[in-house]
Q: What sequence folds into this?
């Protein structure tokens, strides 16, 4: 009973972190400060949906809640990105999207749960490339703290898992690292751009 309550509390905390992440991101978009890249969110929404289904089927329990919420809100962001997102779509972005989506049939054909989740993790990580490319030039058009909350959400979801198998813990572990890495990248890039601007003024 205690373990079940602990998993439920941690699962609820993971969703709360994702709510904070998305709320800040949505607010940034409608204030004109954040411009999401539609390709990244399309890839993340699709893969999060697959990851959620795999986690739920393998007994992750409350540990899968954040992925379900994350997937649904990713697709909302896809729609918003079409109107308020990054318009400077490069050929490299199209290549990234094609590579990511072409890997989905491999997931369908893979019979082993571990390899299926591994492919999902690879595709999700590829999804960062369009946003990283955009953020290198425009680091303030992404809300850094949103990725921090997503990192915390993934970490809490990892702790909320009921049945630990590679199919349930690998994806949230990768998301913890990738979102945390994106947060650190944005902070570092902003400081670098600010230092360059200051040097040019002097």
A:
């Amino acid at each position: 009973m205690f373990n079940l309550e602990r998993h439920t509390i941690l699962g609820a905390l993971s969703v709360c972190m994702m709510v904070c992440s998305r709320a800040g991101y949505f607010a940034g978009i409608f204030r004109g400060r954040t411009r999401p890249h539609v390709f990244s969110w399309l890839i993340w929404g699709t893969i999060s949906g697959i990851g959620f289904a795999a986690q739920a089927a393998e007994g992750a329990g409350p540990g899968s809640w954040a992925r379900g919420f994350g997937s649904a809100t990713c697709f909302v962001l896809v729609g918003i990105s079409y109107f308020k997102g990054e318009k400077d779509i490069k050929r490299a972005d199209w290549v990234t999207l094609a590579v990511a989506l072409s890997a989905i049939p491999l997931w369908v054909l893979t019979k082993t749960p571990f390899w299926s989740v591994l492919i999902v993790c690879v595709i999700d990580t590829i999804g960062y490339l369009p946003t990283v490319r955009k953020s290198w030039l425009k680091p303030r058009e992404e809300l850094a703290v949103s990725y921090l909350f997503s990192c915390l959400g993934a970490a809490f979801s990892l702790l909320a898992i009921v049945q630990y198998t590679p199919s349930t813990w690998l994806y949230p572990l990768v998301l913890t690292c990738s979102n945390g890495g994106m947060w650190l990248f944005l902070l570092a890039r902003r400081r670098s751009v600010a230092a360059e601007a200051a040097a040019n003024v002097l």
Q: What stands out?
A: The mean pLDDT is 88. The chain has one domain: 2-201.
